[in-house]
Amino acid sequence: MRMRVGSLHRSPLSLTLLLTTLLSACGGGGGDGPTIAAVGPPSAPVGVTSNVGDGAASLGWSPVADDGGAPVEAYEITLMPQASTANIAIVGRHALIRGLSNGTVYTASVRARNRAGSGAAAQSAAFTPRASDRVRYQDLAIAGDTSRSGIFDPSLLRTGSNELWMSYSGVDFSRDPQGQLVQDVGINLARSTDNGATFTKVAGVGVPGVATVTDTLPEHAACGAATCNGRWVYETSWLIDDSTDPATRKRYKLFAHKYFLYPAGPERTLYHLGAIVMWTAADPAGPWSAEIPVIGWNLTPPELTARHVVNSLAADLANCLVVSEGSAVVRNGTIDFVFACPSAGSNGVNPQAIVLLRTTDHLSTLSYVRTILKATDAAPLGASFFTAPALLANSDSAPLLLVTPAVGAGFYAGCVVFPIADEAAGTLFTDTAAPIPIQGLPTRSGRFGGACSWARGASGLGGVLSNEMIAASPIENTRFSVVRTGSTLDP
Questions:
Q1: Which CATH number describes the domain made up of 46-123?
Q2: Pick from 467, 446, 459, 444: nearest CA to 489
Q3: The CATH number of 134-484 is which of 3.30.300.30, 3.50.50.60, 1.10.3720.10, 2.115.10.20?
Q4: pLDDT tens across 283-302, in order?
């Protein structure tokens, strides 16, 4: 067969028209057709933040403003001065650096990389790893607080460049007319306008009072009757700024564990006869709404019917006796809660897991994300489990989780600081599946203490805040205090 080739012939004019058409379609002929954008390296990351620990630091940063036309594939970190012992792990926009020398001043440069290469670097502020220092522990006083037995369980919220609000427990141990010990605990709010150097009490929100409660665990025989007479008390509070709530009167949300106190019983504090309650306000100074039970559990009494029951959220939560010792942060309209979830154990030890719950609609719904720490994760530290979690990630690109190791049946033994690898997934940095801490904050010898809190940049605060309890006899002489540890996580 003979192929005709004459039809493939083009004159110079037709070739010129064809080339012009192709260039125009590709944006090279000066026309208005589609263009193929060149891909370049990304811009520098934004806002590199660091936390320091014992021979370690954690970093976080915000996304690049310009990805160069292609997705960011990875981030690179250069440490100065270079340290041959340094181990750098990067997960998304968070990093953990170990093997650093305490007392040495470092900086870190972070670059984003796409398929076109690495972009410009963003440099962190100088940071200096250091160990904790118990010698500098000092009690924190709150002006205007009259709690007879002291204060406990602080939680901090920054509301201005120098303004901090603290929710805390005021403790009053006393004897009733029958000689029974009454362990009243209520929730108070205090304000600092000097970055944590001083605090003044502003309001009492969760106020203890008389209660009649249905016993949901009759085999426990709290009082030997279907209902028990005692007192409501409140503890382990936390305050958040939910600024995207469309109801401005609900912008600030204060949470606490409300539970039943039975002074006449051998076991007075009945945590399972309770719920997590919430108050709301347009301003931390108030006025505050009436309390709303928002999170309960299978044993929550009908007097505190809660909006959400944790045991029904996921199989992992089915055995939670309560959820307590909580905290929360707000991230772009999402509220993340962390709680201790104790389950029935043996030999007087109820092991606890640290669980992450989440709401994206201001608590209309609530979901389970994951178990962040199992009880067995505490074994390398010689502890039975972790408790009293504090999630520190509000407007922060380097989030942290502070927890308390509990020894034996629940003796608080200070605090441990874990950097978070992925706050959306609720994961920590791990090494052979074990979570990696960057700092430990022990208590002073012989003292029950922990349940820590902290606020970034609070220069007057005196470091991470911890709690201490000094037991005494008779028990009403027991003292509770919030202490400035002198150990900061700021660089």
A1: 2.60.40.10
A2: 459
A3: 2.115.10.20
A4: 999 999 999 999 999 999 99
